[in-house]
Task: structure prediction
Amino acid sequence: MTAMTEQAKLKVFLCHASQDKPIVRDLHQRLSSEGWIDPWLDEENILAGQEWEYEIEKAVESADVVIVLLSSVSVNKEGYIQKEIRYALDIALEKPEGTIFIIPLRLDNCAVPRKIKRWQYVDYFPSERLDWAYKKILDSLRVRARNKGINIEYLNQEGIRPIIYPPLLVSISNDSDLKPIQSIAEWQVNEPSAELQDRTPHTRRDNRQAGEWYICGASRRGKLHEHDAAFREDEFVIEYAGGWVLVAVADGSGSHNLSRVGAKLAVNTALDVIKRKIEFIPPSNSMAKTLLVDALRQAWKVLNQESWGRQSKFHDLSTTLLLLMYNPKNNLLGTAQIGDGLIVAQMEDGRVALLGKPESGEIYGQTNFLTNYQLDELALKCGVIDLPGHVQYFFVMTDGVADDLYPPQERLHGLCKAIPSVMASQDPDKALLDLLNYNIFGSFGDRTLVVICKREEIAALSKWNAKEQTSGFQIKL
Result:
């Protein structure tokens, strides 16, 4: 008699915050008892001496399903759980359309992060509904197992009997014609429908001479929008007027249908307001803050007017907005920030100075937008800053870049190392656009970056950096 070959099981990764361990342990035990499910839990599966971060990443990559357990703790917590979610999201978009891969599971009455809101969630509370909720989870896992061709053993009146499902999904074109659905093995680059209005180019780049300084900006569509045949939602504008370096960067909310319109209107309106007034007012800290407040308020009004003109909701034009105005001669700096992203300076002594305050929403993956505020609240988002020394670079970026550089105090140096070669190239804004085409697992949003630096330092820094950078542009984190 030969030994029975061990049947494959459905691999389920339990993504959770450590504070939710008690309920996660219970769920792990219930899933394990099914016999055909192999749930992965760090305290059960990571051996002493193993590198836990590597083992978690490996488990997410090999999982058939990722159950993301959401609670008021986990959605507001910074740390490794957020990296796990990003890994899972990246992998999810490589699965065939319709595949059950991410199952959000709420442990309490928390909001679901917008990045995983596209998937139907299950409420694993209150206690009297746990059995019902668990059955819903099993229903989804059975469908996934069926598509994987995994044998499921279940008890019926006759005892234990295996059921074997075919591994291919099928679509029915007529009563007798069955065709396999093509697998999506990698990210796709798809063009938006020709019927869509408010079209925007997939990339944008620009540069300006600013006295002794140089401004360079680039923006490109992210992998998620490429895959979903959507437009780029980011926008930026750079100017040099009245001795001031001016930058506006915005990131439209992808979940609102007019957000790219809102982003474009916001950056153009804000800088138009500043440019019209800046040459007629003597430079000072109070002048900088006044202009920033005016810029935010006018951008808010223009979005409001646009929503009325289109007979749409104000929030349909939701966008972040980051502003920077810098007067090198008088060493004056003012910034304004609505939403996420990053305004930061790399000092000549290597220190990193955060020049804005990124805003997050109530939960991870969300942020605040210009349309979330009342007009009289916007003044609180502007400020003037005393620089803690001599600046080497200013950076203004959307979250598509900022998230990859978190925390900036530790990872901004990777970007700084690449910038001299970019700026010293014959076509710096194109080189910056190429730089933004880097690949990092779990990074798939639109990317926009504006760099401000002294021209005289670029050549020297580029020669020094060329010894270590000979194979193109990369952000090494």
Q: What stands out?
A: The chain has two domains: 10-180, 203-466. The radius of gyration is 26 Å.
